[in-house]
Write a structure and sequence with these properties.
The structure is a homodimer of 334-residue chains.
Chain A: E1 3-4, E2 7-9, E3 15-24, H1 25-28, E4 38-40, H2 50-69, E5 78-83, H3 89-98, E6 102-104, H4 111-124, E7 130-137, H5 139-146, E8 162-163, E9 166-173, E10 180-185, H6 200-219, E11 228-231, H7 235-247, E12 257-259, H8 260-264, E13 275-276, H9 278-294, E14 300-308, H10 312-316, E15 323-331
Parallel strand pairs in A: 3-4, 5-6, 5-7, 8-13, 11-12, 11-14
Antiparallel strand pairs in A: 1-2, 2-10, 3-9, 7-9, 10-15, 14-15
Helix pairs in contact in A: 2-3, 6-7
């Protein structure tokens, strides 16, 4: 078995040979603006609906990552992808364009990390040579599906997060040069009883902490073995909560713990507790983190994709919001 | 590479050591009624909402398959599951109960076959010893999400299918006795321009045909190498369409082609063109097909999970309905 505890390891660590990140206007005004491949200021992206705009973001981003890797779609064995929209409709329509065998995933905002973990298993398992993993989210499409159309002008509580508009794409390969995915931990669904669909950081923090501890314990590592342990989209509130939960364990992660959603915006932006959405971890990994790893400024990071398994119907029916988190360790190129 | 063309093969074919199938009232009055583990006549299943009823079906079915395999949840490495409800909420809540690392999937009605294909790769790849794969659908929850609440009494066109109420669960293992999954083909998203959300058989038939031909060609086989080639939920209309499309190729499948959805109901039942939904292929495989394979009455079958990647929002926005199909070959126990 290529497992230690609940964590799988890769004998031949899959290589992230190319990435692409497209970001929206708010993200394009944030601290990471210089790292993105493209910034799209128009939320409609020249399309008739926000949903079509999200699809265009995602589709153009897939074309861009293929171009950067100098690959044709026929050279990719599988697509692994998903998004926040019902029936993962963005991913489905992008897969229709690409005509590559498609494995549809749903892990809320953890979807892209789920796809990278699974893609690494398929490559190291010998079933694929190259995989295209992608995901997207869009502020307006997510708000109107999960909460209220933004046109309603609902009040914005300070702990609420801002759904990231953007798309991230990754090509994993068994050959080539780039950062390596060495380990993955698939998380369990955890539920601490949060019922407010605006308060997703709190819903996801316990799952993130559980998966971080599992990953470290399985590998016999401590936080100092990592340059950075970074969660997907807990936001500032959720990050604080995760730190507090971790302080009750033997791990004190204060120095190395950060959050993609919290990094995406500056304090001056009207984005509440920070970014959330599939694109939060996807575009931060595809841009800033990938470049830092490639340039060996970061040696080893743990990226913990976090998902609030929120459903408007289940919330209306009185259910709480469970969370999930999947972790991957990524190392600088050899 | 463990691949031939687009089809993956398993050096150590994963074994389906146990299955469980719960069916609803309509399915419990159909030709396969004696094969199910349990029949639930009340669409509410004693719950307050149809969604909670679906969850209870799915949850009880997971408990039953674990009991039949004499396994505790801690002995399962991964859950692979999904369903038709937005945010795959049924699978999420079942995973919350089971506390097993969870990989959420969405492939519409092909989801369970997607999970068996992927689960086989994770086992044969050496990342898991045992996997629990499951899925569900429910007539009332699907109708109100995808079309109209049944209480509205909408007209029922003859080509419309009946969403199967039920849940199927499977335990895949690298050890034990049972039918074997030997090959899998992940399909591409195909779109032939169907726009009527009632006409899903037509939306899925081209994808099914594409995947069947891919699977046969990759393995150098013809239909006579199979006792049965069975699609997930094309229904009678879709099955006829698939046969016609196949007649234009070198493969004439008339003798061996059938459809799980079409098999579930008798002509006398008011179920239109036949069954559809995640549970269509799941409960037919978990009951009738599994028993026939286990008793070696069937030697080798190809099961082709079919999914209509229908989304109410995209349909309202004028999009067509793409389809997808994934195929697995299953053989009798050694």
């Amino acid at each position: 078995m290529k497992r230690t505890g609940k964590t799988v390891y890769f004998d031949s660590a899959p290589i992230i040979i190319a990435t692409s990140a497209i970001a929206g206007k708010m993200e394009g005004q944030g601290p990471l603006k210089d790292y993105f491949d493209q910034i799209v200021n128009d939320p409609y992206y020249g399309s008739k609906t926000f949903e079509k705009a999200e699809r265009k973001l995602c589709s153009n981003n897939c074309q861009n990552v293929l171009k950067k890797a100098n690959l044709n779609p026929e050279e990719i064995d599988f697509l692994l992808a998903g998004d926040l929209l019902n029936q993962i409709v963005t991913a489905n329509f992008c897969a229709r364009e690409l005509q590559i065998p498609f494995i549809g995933l749903y892990g809320a905002c953890s979807t892209v990390i789920e796809s990278l973990a699974l893609g690494s298993m398929l490559i190291d398992g010998g079933f694929a040579e190259r995989i295209l993993s992608f995901g997207s989210s869009h502020y307006q499409t997510a708000e109107r599906q999960y909460r209220m159309p933004v046109e309603y002008g609902s009040q914005y509580p300070p702990y609420k997060q801002w759904t990231v508009t953007g798309a991230g794409a990754f090509i994993l390969s068994n050959q080539g040069t780039g950062p390596l995915i060495t380990h993955a931990t698939i998380g369990k669904v955890m539920d601490f009883g949060v019922i407010d669909p605006n308060d997703m950081g709190a819903a996801m923090a316990p799952a993130a902490v559980d998966t971080i501890i599992q990953h470290l314990n399985d590998l016999g590592r401590t936080p100092i073995d990592y340059d950075l342990i970074i969660t997907g989209d807990l936001g500032e509130e959720g990050k604080t909560m995760a730190r507090e939960l971790l302080r009750e364990t033997k791990f004190d992660l204060d120095v190395v713990l950060n959050d993609c959603g919290a990094m995406l915006y500056s304090q001056k932006q009207p984005t509440g507790s920070g970014g959330s959405g599939v694109a939060a971890s996807a575009i931060v990994l595809a841009s800033y983190l990938y470049q830092e790893l490639s340039q060996k400024k970061l040696q080893r990071i743990m990226l913990v994709g976090t998902g609030a398994l929120l459903s408007p119907i289940s919330t209306l029916q009185g259910e709480t919001i469970p969370g999930i988190a999947h972790a991957i360790t990524i190392e600088k190129p050899i």
